[in-house]
Amino acid sequence: MDKLGFNDSGDLKQFEEPANLLKALSHPIRLCIVRGLMRKKKCNVSYMQECLDLPQSTVSQHLQKLRSAGIVDTERNGLEVNYILANQRIEQIITVLFGEDEC
């Protein structure tokens, strides 16, 4: 340990996954999508587009970023594709940010 109490081994790999999760959440629309999925449990793009009053392409781009980060996943029901939260830790992060009453 150095004077500041940080690990001086230079092993920053342990911080990569949490940093990537926070990067993916660092947009108001993506935060809104995740909080909405916490409340509703699953949702399709059309419903999100309507709620957010945004073009479908914009919502899809944000969902792709969340999916790439492992925050959301898809669940197929016939032709309909629903998005669900894929990472339990995200619910904890959102609850810390907004409080339990808001989530």
TrEMBL record:
Pfam family, any one: HTH_20
Keywords from the UniProt entry: DNA-binding, Transcription, Transcription regulation
PROSITE patterns in alphabetical order: HTH_ARSR_2
Entry-linked CDD domains: HTH_ARSR
Keyword DNA-binding belongs to the record: yes
Every HTH arsR-type domain range: 12-103
Superkingdom assignment: Bacteria
InterPro entries referenced in this protein's UniProt entry, alphabetically: ArsR-like_HTH, HTH_ArsR_DNA-bd_dom, Metal_resp_trans_reg, WH-like_DNA-bd_sf, WH_DNA-bd_sf
Protein name, entry field: ArsR/SmtB family transcription factor
The organism's taxonomic lineage, starting at the top: Bacteria, Bacillati, Bacillota, Bacilli, Bacillales
